[in-house]
Specification:
The chain has about 270 residues and is of the alpha/beta class. About 35% of the residues are buried. The chain has one domain: Endonuclease, Chain A (2-Layer Sandwich). Strands 1-7-6-5-2-3-4 form a 7-stranded mixed beta sheet, with helices on both faces. The longest helix is centred in the N-terminal third of the chain and has 19 residues.
Amino acid sequence: MIIYLLLIFMLFSPSHADVTAFFNTPLGGSALCKMTAVAKIDELIAFKREHADKECSIKLAMYELEDPDLLEGLVRAQQRGIKLNLLLDKGAHEKVMGKIREASGKAAAPGTFAAHDKAKKDRAGMALGEIIGSIILVGNPYTPGVKGAGRPRTMHEKFAIFSCAPGSAEEGTATAAASSGRPKKTARGGEAPMKAGGGGGSSSTRDEQYYSVLVGSYNWTDAAAEINYENCLLIDEESADVGRSFDNRFDEISVNEMGSAPGTARK
């Protein structure tokens, strides 16, 4: 349903966006959603390396996060100065951490599946330790007096927002002639050159917030990449209509769970 609604929105929205659907297919098929997520992280890291004046961030709302490749990508992004904000389901995250702790305390014979699984969980545990300060666990109970009171809420949304905003005016002006102010596209098999002058040539176009959103059924887990049938949409925008909608949604959930949006003082 969410994919259908997004397609309808994109058809009738004045926003200029590239929208591409990807699918994970099990039993030796392609894990295109995972490949796209990895590519978007690496793309943002490369862009940040070349444009230190830009303020870049990754906001991730996810039921479950345990794929070591993607976790290590988030660690690399954080080390490059990209701000991370992660909303994870509390119950699912506690199960992930339990499996990681269980695997760390067990020995496994080299070359076995158990050894392979342990190595992956060890990597995931180390990466999660590096980004623990960026994680908000979603699972506050429903308030008394409403249906389901006392039951924890579930973080069942699955989307990632990759964004960059202009830095200081002086630095932004210095780099405007060299770049459109948005990362290169990599999702459709190869890098496309950035559009010189931001498509319209004006500095206001170049300095707009850049958003790229990955949304769908795909959890950032090994099972979702290797076993399950999953889908995702990649939305790359020249304007930021859809991106800001997801940004606002992310902040709404954060306020509901914490009393404030990430980066603001708590109430």
